[in-house]
Specification:
By secondary structure, the protein is α/β, with parallel strands linked by helices. It folds into two domains: 114 residues, no CATH class; 123 residues, Rossmann fold. Helices cover 50% and strands 10% of the residues.
């Protein structure tokens, strides 16, 4: 959008609105899009209603039990304005049920790599690390060199459940390539289920991390030297994308 269009949008009081939803990975996709919009708009509205207590009246508890990270995103840009409204969730349900075209326009988001600028990666990496407790930061700094040499496996279980036969074939092909002597940090949203599944195919030592929270896990995963992703997910994607910037920031804090 050129300057002329920008001024016109301001004059007409048009404010783009972005609907935040899902886990950390999805939220990072959405907020990267919102951040990109701030290039052309003086204010971008971020609807965080999904993460408020009243959301259980509109969705199942399982869907809305994810943590929201607006407290981190609010420091990305002064042009991001956060709000919440039960009425917006009512609109969400209405458009999803009766007007799919409008629903896609109002509430859907697109995972577009063009929205991920280097500036965004630098800022969000610093903010994610800054959000950790001092204990978590110190733990990462102390273990930075060893984590940096570690290999990892990320296995998303999520709402998909255990892999079906066609997917198992692909996973087995990945696991066959690993050295049986290697140790792996295991990252999963259901660690016991993941371990029970993996021991059927490999004898490697699987190291379970503390799983303190999503942000901590994402940072540890980003620091690992190598990651075998058994199922693509937005979480593992962002660990990959932010890896270089997270390493730089942790390295800076270590010195």
């Amino acid at each position: 959008m050129n300057l002329k269009n920008k001024n016109l949008s301001i004059k007409l009081n048009y404010l783009p609105e972005v609907f935040l939803m899902g886990g950390l990975g999805n939220q990072l996709w959405i907020i990267s899009y919102a951040y990109q919009l701030t290039i052309n708009y003086e204010k971008v509205l971020i609807n965080e209603s999904w993460y408020k207590n009243y959301s259980i009246f509109f969705f199942s508890r399982k869907r809305v039990r994810r943590n929201g990270y607006c407290h981190i995103f609010k420091n990305l840009s002064q042009n991001l304005s956060f709000f919440n409204s039960p009425f917006s969730l009512l609109k969400y349900r209405f458009f999803k049920s009766f007007n799919s075209k409008s629903f896609k326009k109002k509430f859907d988001y697109f995972q577009d790599h063009k929205n991920i600028s280097l500036d965004f990666k630098k800022k969000i990496s610093k903010l994610l690390i800054s959000s950790l407790s001092e204990k978590q930061k110190n733990k990462i700094i102390l273990q930075f060199k060893s984590i940096n040499k570690m290999k990892s496996i990320h296995f998303r279980i999520g709402d998909k459940g255990l892999p079906k036969e066609s997917e198992i074939k692909y996973i087995k092909s990945l696991l066959k390539k690993i050295n049986q002597k290697d140790k792996f940090l295991l990252f999963s949203d259901s660690q016991k289920t993941a371990i029970d599944f993996l021991v059927r195919f490999i004898n490697n030592q699987l190291i379970i991390i503390d799983c303190e929270d999503e942000v901590y896990d994402l940072i540890i995963l980003a620091l690992c030297n190598e990651c075998i992703i058994l199922r693509e997910s937005t979480f593992s994607y962002w660990a990959r994308i932010l890896s270089n910037e997270i390493r730089k920031e942790i390295n800076f804090l270590s010195n």
